[in-house]
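Re-run with default settings, no changes from the original entry. Doing this only to confirm the output is reproducible before filing.
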Amino acid sequence: MKTLVPRHPIRDSLSAICSWTVSTSVILRRHESSFRRTKQRLRVKPDPSFATSNTYTQDHIVFNPPSSAPSVYHTPSIFLPPNDRRRQLFAAAAGPAPEPQKARLPPPVRKPYEKQYHLTATDIEEIRRLRGEDPNVWTREKLAKKFNCSNLFVGIVCEASRERREGQQQILEAVKLKWGRRRRIAREDRVKRRETWGRDE
């Protein structure tokens, strides 16, 4: 039978000893058990006040403050005796309720105004007549300034003619032709978002 003779017996023996010491040191260097740290130490018995008791026949308040130094400021007034000195101290410290201060609001965007309902049926017919005769001259802004009303009211009372709407659409299409790629994509996304508003998407 053929036997194997190590070429370097001293070096091989030293390496074996070093590996054994490293392995034993790793095994012996054990920290606290995970089970004890995560389970066993958390098994704290609850306070007796939280346990079910037959003493109380109806719902009641359980006052169980944390384990800390006692402080008179942490004791609710409801648990103090009626003749306790701390009740008077709490009442004196609270004092009368301060008057609410008026908060300073930012200035209004536009001057406040009151709505006016001064236009009659004759004025409305006049607005429609002027708007129908020459919409390019009698725009919504001019009519609102003439009759002292808002542009929205003019748009509600009378709509622009078909020719006026088509002209404005042509102007808008000419402006869109000058848009770049990024602006066109942004406007298309805006239209898509508006379409999904009513569908809650």
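The mean pLDDT is 77. Helices lie at 9-28, 34-40, 85-94, 121-133, 140-147, 151-157, 162-177, 181-197.
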